Amino acid sequence: MTEDNFEKFLKQTAQSYNAPPARVPREEMWNAIQAKRAAGPRVVYGGGLASDGSSKRFGTRVWLGAAAAAMLLVATGVGIGRWTAAPVSQTASTIQVPPKAVVAPEQGGEEPTGEPNVSAVDQPSYRGSASGNNQVATVAPRAGRESSRASSQVATTNTPSAPTPSSAYQLTTVRHLSEAEALLTSFRQRSNSDQQMDAQLGVWARQLLSNTRLLLDSPVANDPQRRPLLEDLELVLVQIVQLSPGAAPQDRDLIEKTLQQEHVLTRLRTAIPAGPQRGS
Amino acid sequence: MQLVAYESRSSVNDIHLITRVVAGDAAAERELYETYVDRIYRLAFRLAGDDELAQDFTQATFIRAFEKIGSFRGDSSLSTWLHSIGVSVALNGLRKTKRQRNREAPMEEGISIGSSRTEAEPDLKERMARAIDALAEKYRTVFVMHDVEGYTHEEISGALNIPIGTSKSHLFQARSKLRVALADFAPEWVS
User: Predicted ipTM?
Assistant: First the structure.
């Protein structure tokens, strides 16, 4: 009974809550609706309304604007492409030249005694022009006429010019490779029974694996030397990530074998420029 | 009187009206507007408590309805569809207005339910209004629609896109909170 009374009381009293005026301003609102609809884009219900002249003009204007914007966009794209094409092609040609210099220490099975030569050619933008040219000059007699011509190209591109558009990628790559080298060195030096270390290395390897894959999808992977190195690194990192803390010694041996067969560490050290700018 | 006009409409009339509106019949647009404008405006006013806002919400409701009526599939009645637009427009508009007001007067103290009697005692209507304002949006909307404007739970369910049971639950919650808030006035309904 009390509940019914309360509901009745509530409904009666609540009638005063935000009570609307007795007269609804119909005409005013209708006029406002018409004005707003006229001001905005014309509504067409499934083609039910014939379009008038004004909407045609509006449409034409929109299309002309869109076409102009598209042309401007294309022109800008072409301009940027031409502006960036020349330095990129030059860089690409210099990178393609010294594969022999890179492979040489590997084939010989030596430690990378030729490291400065390779890095001078491979990382032209990270070294001073003088040292770069000197090192290239020492390579030339060994590599023959082809390399001599190539090294002259390197010398021209090794001038201390402004960084090419790919400099950011190169810098990132060097940092990444430095970190990968540190990881692999730690992996080799760890104790077989240190499961906690394995877990930490796994986390570290996972981060590096993501970055390796990103680099593989970047312009850095166009470099014929970098790509195989990154691919081999990816393989090793995947193996380390998948290595569970309690893994059998054979699993670790497998990784070790990959490292040795592919000379991953050696190639990593070769690819990282030495000196004060290393990894910076 | 407007309710009579609204209630006497059949779904056949609605379908015919919609067909004409979709075909671009300006007179049909006006007819649709005349049929539903009072109810939409009243609800908007109840929710907003302000004539200017209520008019804005009503206009926006019909503009949106005319824009989208071509995609009306007839899953619900025209009234339900229109009210769902109306409630959505009003609640979104009120949230935006509330945010603006909060930015303009961030230090303004909130109104609490069941303020103590040591404060200056407002009369019943004012206390009621403050208590309703203090309800959560979902409770207030259902309460206003059901107990103030007389919508059925079916209509509320369709307009708010909630199950009928939820509508009933929200109403129960709203009434419970109001009962607490208006406890000082218990003799008014107990007697």
Answer: 0.83
